[in-house]
Amino acid sequence: MKALVYDGVEQLGFRDVPDPVPADGEHLVKIQAVGICGSDMHAYLGHDARRPAPLILGHEAAGTIVGGPKDGTRVTVNPLVACQTCPACKAGRENLCPNRQIISMPPREGAFAQYISMPLSNLVTVPDDVPLAKAALAEPLAVSWHAARLVLEALHPSMDKTALVIGGGAIGLAAALALQAMGVTDVTIAEPNDARRAFLINTCGQSTVAQAHGQWAFVIDAVGYAATRAAASAAAQPGGVIAHIGLGQDTGGLDVRRMTLHEITFIGTYTYTAQEFRDTAQAIFDGRLGPLDWTEIRALGDGHAAFEDLHAGTVASPKIILDPWA
Amino acid sequence: MKALVYDGVEQLGFRDVPDPVPADGEHLVKIQAVGICGSDMHAYLGHDARRPAPLILGHEAAGTIVGGPKDGTRVTVNPLVACQTCPACKAGRENLCPNRQIISMPPREGAFAQYISMPLSNLVTVPDDVPLAKAALAEPLAVSWHAARLVLEALHPSMDKTALVIGGGAIGLAAALALQAMGVTDVTIAEPNDARRAFLINTCGQSTVAQAHGQWAFVIDAVGYAATRAAASAAAQPGGVIAHIGLGQDTGGLDVRRMTLHEITFIGTYTYTAQEFRDTAQAIFDGRLGPLDWTEIRALGDGHAAFEDLHAGTVASPKIILDPWA
After folding, report:
1. Whole-structure pTM value
2. B99 touches chain A (CB under 8 A)
């Protein structure tokens, strides 16, 4: 099959590799849409020790089961393979499973390829009327759905539900959409890139600012750098809640003194539970997350150029979806 | 009256000052016991811009109402004077009142003095059989009671309630006692000072370690420095909760990457609600916080020496209580 292989810092090669061979209980999935995530970009830039070259990246995938009794079933892929037996899994918190694997991190190859092999429990059936390019958004949307659920659960019931989302990439936009789907109507996205901000306003109908001034009950840091954490800890209201998504910088930025004096809660969030992945997929299918018409589709064979464009900041759309068969 | 006045960095003078004159609705309280807090020490060392010299420090006080219809009533003092009218106060979160005042910060003088003036709603009646030196512990115990309640509320119900408390001063010990009063039986205090650790074991019956190794569902950082936050973020289990008390250093220390990958929640905490102050006082009166026999009583006139001893690390007891009339 063809795959886009990460060969080293800023090197991606589109070439033939062996087809995956499904393990017991796994199914072969023909990938028809796979998104580029910020974490793929971190890996491409050599900033993710969990993703050493050579490796097939990509974990936001949708496609069609090939072979077996489910042959031809259109699916979106939950890339997080949990053990199902540890206390975290039994509590429905697969995101905390100490044995969790994620495709695009060894020992599992990623989905920038024509096929992957996955356990059936990681595959969610997609209705015929939902394009697979939309279904592939289940993964990034589930990341933000999880964060939105956690901040809503953590906020004191006396506070008005106002939200600032820092960063208008796919995760930030998805956080705004998830909060809105959960009934939070007052959502502002802070995004300094002018082209992306215009896109968020004009195509996505979101309220945006270049820089956050003011305070909100929720702040979702959808970037994960020291500077965005500094902004988040300045922008949370007393008694408010910050959810932090992203692995940009390991430490620094939080104004702990302010968080202490004003009882601000900070929740680190990463991925989602299996139920949240299914809930998010259902919300996509039901249209509760909007038209999801803010993606840009390119051929997987042009994947390297897509990474270069994203790194240069010249992509207005919050998400590029790659098609391995284009 | 006599008062211990903070005159500048590491300068405390015990001298005559004018008696306070109660404002409308306030009562004069004869102070009979007042504890030294870590925040008094920060101020004494010149590290607290909120407490500029000259100023009477001290906010952990108990005494007797003098004059008026409540004359002779023994009380412990909630030092946090909230506005009672803002949304936070109306929600019972007086600790988040934007107009809050705390005695020992301008415009209110503190309780290292023979008298203070306080609103009646800040005074909790102490039963005759409870010594005022014990009742004066309501304030630091309420700080930790609040933190313990917040971590218990935030923890996922599937997790075993194991707790690490970092720092074995009064706030750390109080956190351990509050958690135990709330039913958490597995509590470890990390305290590097050998004399204090021996005191915690022998006098307070606590489980202690010099350095934390391992992971716990709750971590209460009762110190508030970058190093203790680093220890806290390393010691929290995946899905666990950190409560942070203390204003030692404003920023730094947290391993945000680990907190993000493992969904660790960090809650900044400071003071307590009015209800929690009353609840803590009642727990003291009922004996639910133990014998509270771990204080050392000294004369207010010897207050400067007490600060010097605390700063030198030669005080094994987690709390020195000063008596303005000794």
Report:
1. 0.95
2. no
CB contact under 8 A, A265 and B264: no
Closest residue in B to A246 (Cα–Cα):
B260
Cβ separation of B95 and A263 shorter than 8 Å? yes
> Which residues, 6+ apart, have CB-to-CB distance to A320 below 8 Å?
A35, A36, A295, A296, A297, A298, A306, A310
A240 interaction partners in chain B (CB closer than 8 Å) = none
Burial of A15 (0-12, 13-18, 19+ CB in 10 A): exposed
Q: How does pLDDT run across A254-309, given as a tens digit for each residue?
A: 999 999 999 999 999 999 999 999 999 999 999 999 999 999 999 999 999 999 99
Question: Which H or E run includes A142?
Answer: helix A138-154
Which pair of structure tokens corresponds to residue A125?
A: 């059936």
Structural domains for chain A = 2-137+292-323 (3.90.180.10), 141-268 (3.40.50.720)
Mean pLDDT along residues B142-171: 97
List, for residues B76-101, the tens digit of each pLDDT value.
999 999 999 999 999 999 999 999 99
What beta strand segments (E) does B84-235 contain? 101-102, 115-119, 123-125, 162-166, 186-190, 207-209, 216-221
Contact A242, A267 (CB under 8 A): yes
Task: Quote the percentage of chain A above a pLDDT of 70.
Answer: 100
**pLDDT cut 90: percent of chain B above it:** 96
Please tell me the distance from the alpha carbon of residue A60 to that of residue B79, in angstroms, as a whole number. Answer: 54
Q: How far apart are CA B310 and CA B303, in angstroms?
A: 11
CB-CB contact of A77 with A29 (8 Å): yes
Whether A260 and B247 lie within 8 Å, measured CB to CB = yes
